[in-house]
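step 4 of 6: structure.
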Amino acid sequence: MERIDPRARSDIYGLRINRAPYAWRVRSVPYVTIMLGSLLPVLLIADLMPLFPSLGFLLLLGWRMVRPGLLPLWAGAPLGAFDDLVSGQPFGSAILLWSLAMIVIELIETRFPWRGFWQDWFTAGVIAVSYWFAALLVSGASVTPEMFIVALPQALLSVMLYPIIARMVAGLDRFRLARARKID
Amino acid sequence: MAPPSSRRSGFSKKAQFSLFTGYLLAGAGAVLGLALLALSLWQPAAFAPLRGVASDVVAPVGTGGAVTRSGSQGFFATISGYFNAGQQNAELRRENELARIRLAEADAIKAENQRLKGLLDLRDGEAKPVAMARLVGSTATSVRRHAYISAGTSSGVAPGMPVLSERGVIGRVLETGRNSARVLLLTDSESVLPVRRAKDNVIAFAEGRGDGLLRIRLVNLGVNPLKVGDMMVTSGAGGYYRPGVAVAVIAKITPDGGIARLVAEPSATNFVAVEPVHEAAAVAELEDTVLPGPSPAAGATPTPTPAPPSGAAAGEE
């Protein structure tokens, strides 16, 4: 069979016979990528103004939308706690906002069980913009008009980035479930 | 796409309970977050040790990023240098000649300065830095402007110490970890710094606007003496910074002062020096009399209520 078509006994996750995914990958990839997303903006730039949307939050939204039911409902609290440690926001802001976002998505999902890409984007966009605004309010700084204008591109970027993030998460999900382990 | 059927509980008691527990835990997480948020807005320093540990872990990783950051900026400068090399060459030669003349003048002034200082018996303002560190990164997602440096309590860095680059003031230390520290940048909207004009003694406050610029507010209102291009330097009031370090250049005039651009931009900075608090004894005394509570990173203003590092206590002003 393989001589005719080398991919005959495989699907997008790889060969099906005699192979299994790594258990550690299946469990850890979503959490690790979200935490890396929280870290990345801190490491790469040292700038005068907020530029980048919260990549950790966008990845959380991505994983939640692309793979419903994979992250438990309470995952927002511990992941948010990690984000708070490095993001510069007062400790507790991401714990609160990420938990609320998870609950809101869950409620939307029970209300509209059948969803498509456009509805996902709409939901993610509305939640990302609300998160941006709430984070601005609870940042502990007095919000000035200049600050608001400077932070606007962040809101726009977080909405526009969702499709890319969703594709990225789908790719990471394939990596997560790839049958890389040989069973002997 | 419908949610997986495993998440519909149906009549299974077990599934119903686990669904309920999920909601309960998520709600508890949100409530916990709200409580922690209220606590950290009320007492900004409460979670400093926790964040110190996190930044200690992050700092070594960020050092690699800092190298590429400064490297890439040099890379673009090199390319643009090729395009206008001839014109730049002529300009630089002319500037160089001017600079030589000015340097000679400055030497004369320096000599005179020393003589006058000797007469007044003032001590020299140069301070020996506590530590040299790499600027690791900054909070790029939050509207708060904090940066991380790769030196902490193990090298003698303490909250309140000024952080300077070779060009001018970057900010001051807010929280310290063992091998890293968090710096409040000048452009943070909670940062206030007493400054004066370099050539005379027009006194003002430089406040961060949160958008990369500083608002210069004159202390003595009246006719605004500032002009575009004026250099503002630290005045030394408040005791945190030594006087005469470059801070910002006026870019726009407003009725009560001006809008200024930073001299030392964190994005173009690789290494910084952490200097000791200039008048440590005076600062300690000020804090004892004004703020009874422990407020390690209280502001650099000489006003009775020093600007706290976070907006929690800003309501008092």
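step 5 of 6: annotate
 - Chain A has seven helices and four strands.
 - The CA atoms of residues 137 and 143 of chain A lie 7 Å apart.
step 6 of 6: archive
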